[in-house]
Amino acid sequence: MTVTFCVAVPESDRLDRFLAEQLALSRTAAARLIADKRVESDGRPLRASARLARGTVVSVNFPPEAAPRVYQPAERNLTVAYEDEHLLVIDKPAGLVVHPGPGHWNDSLVNVLVGRGTPLSEGSEAGRPGIVHRLDRDTSGLLLIAKTDRAHRRLARAIEYRKVKRGYAALSWGHLARSPVRIEAPITRHPTNRQRMTVLAGGRHAVTHAAVLARFAHVDLLRLELETGRTHQIRVHLAHVGHPVVGDREYAFGGSRRVTGSLRGEAERIEAATPRQALHAAVLTFDHPVTGVRVTLRSEWPADLREALARAAEDDTLLAQPNPLSYFGFFASDE
């Protein structure tokens, strides 16, 4: 199928953005059409960065439709933080993979949402319907899901233009020398271990903002905000500056073994009390993609990391504290 249209504005935005908006496509789908040389003007393929003048005639040659992918439904209880006909925000538990992939084709969050009967947008990437942004399997917290393509496009654009605020709580080894601090370092796939990410020249631009909420003997309780959204960004950036996330099996760089002498025993006890990476998506703030109403959602420090926090603080009363992040002032800047 071929669609032809004429540019009616004085000058278009970048072609990939303009095409996505005009034809109600995801940005990724538009970019794929351009890369496959299916978008032309006067018989010549156009580049994604092209800006078109008024009157330019554009032809888009769509490939034959592929058979839609069928997702096996799965059952699992989900904690819903917000839901309407346009979007859903869940408080994701640790251990749940967000989208289907090797080893998790039938038990991902997408499968659970299908089993729940939740309508999902087409998605910005194949195999990831509804997924606007991601959390690592062993990172818990607030995750945004689009039910409609319209909501997905607008939310993805809001994230691209840094209009979605994502705040994370983490325990990190050692102590940041300054607070707050801006961590800026390019991230890319590790050259020899493709399952990991690393800081390397030529990687994708990445910026994380970190601030100390509480300083304990061996670790800091941090509040982190993403300016960009690269794979494993917080974990890689904190490891890069020498303060990896407590309990991180991939980027710990020694973990409790970093602590020497008589203090190592207590550090080992903190590590033993941490069942997974101590990283939690605690704040999500965005403008609703349809109503424009500002939405701010919060999620407290999860139960499976309570013992690790109490051990780090050397304060067992934190185990009975219902709102430890509020206790340490984590949400004060969101009020």
What does the secondary structure layout of this molecule look like, with pairings?
Blueprint: E1 2-6, H1 15-22, H2 27-35, E2 39-41, E3 44-45, E4 57-61, E5 79-83, E6 87-92, H3 109-116, E7 140-146, H4 149-160, E8 165-173, E9 181-184, E10 187-189, E11 197-199, E12 207-215, E13 219-226, H5 233-240, H6 264-272, E14 279-287, E15 294-298, H7 306-313, H8 324-327
Parallel strand pairs: 7-14
Antiparallel strand pairs: 1-4, 2-3, 2-4, 5-6, 6-7, 8-13, 8-14, 9-12, 10-11, 12-13, 14-15
Helix pairs in contact: 1-2, 6-7
Please give a handful of descriptors for the protein shown.
alpha+beta; single chain; 335 residues; 8 helices; Pseudouridine synthase; Structural Genomics Hypothetical 15.5 Kd Protein In mrcA-pckA Intergenic Region, Chain A; 3 domains; 4-stranded antiparallel β-sheet
List the secondary-structure elements in sequence, H or E: EHHEEEEEHEHEEEEEEHHEEHH
Q: Any idea how many domains?
A: 3
Mean pLDDT, as a whole number? 89
The shape is elongated
Q: CATH first level of the largest domain: which class?
A: Alpha Beta
CATH architecture classification name of the largest domain = 2-Layer Sandwich
Q: What fraction of residues sit in β-strands?
A: 15-25%
Low-confidence segments, given as residue ranges, are none
According to DSSP, the number of beta strands is 15
Share of residues in helices: 10-25%
Structural class based on helices, strands and sheet pairing: alpha+beta
CATH level-3 fold name of the largest domain: Pseudouridine synthase
Radius of gyration: 22 Å
Number of helices: 8
Oligomer: single chain
Give the CA-CA distance, first to last residue.
Answer: 51 Å
CATH superfamily placement of the largest domain: Pseudouridine synthase
Largest sheet features: 9 strands, mixed
